Amino acid sequence: LQRRGRKVSIVSTMASQPPMISDDLRRQADHFIDLTTLKNDVGRDPSERPVRRPEPAEVDEDDY
After folding, report:
1. What is the pLDDT of residues 22-56, one digit of tens each?
2. Would you say 7 and 35 are in contact if contact means Cβ atoms under 8 Å apart?
3. For the chain, which residues make up each domain, given as ranges?
4. DSSP letter string, the chain
5. What pLDDT, on the 0 to 100 scale, is given for residue 15?
6. Cα dihedral angle (25, 26, 27, 30), rounded to 10 degrees?
7. DSSP-assigned beta bridge partners for residue 9
8. Rounded CA gap, 25 and 23, in Å?
9. Given a cut of 70, is residue 63 above it in pLDDT?
10. Tell me, what's the pLDDT at 62?
């Protein structure tokens, strides 16, 4: 896209370990937006998140 004169924006984060984006890809982008800067705009309050329930293990009918 950049070769065609388009601007490239990447939204990812450097806060996780390991980072979700490589330094090389981040440097190639015209704009890098870290998710941590968007947290207040798009993030949810942890109390609003539904409680995760573990999924039951699949039962294979051939086991019986």
Report:
1. 888 888 899 999 888 888 888 888 787 778 888 77
2. no
3. 1-39
4. -GGGT---EEEE-SSSSS-SS-HHHHHHSSEEEEHHHHHHHH---GGGSPPP-PPPPP--GGG-
5. 81
6. 110
7. 31
8. 6
9. no
10. 65
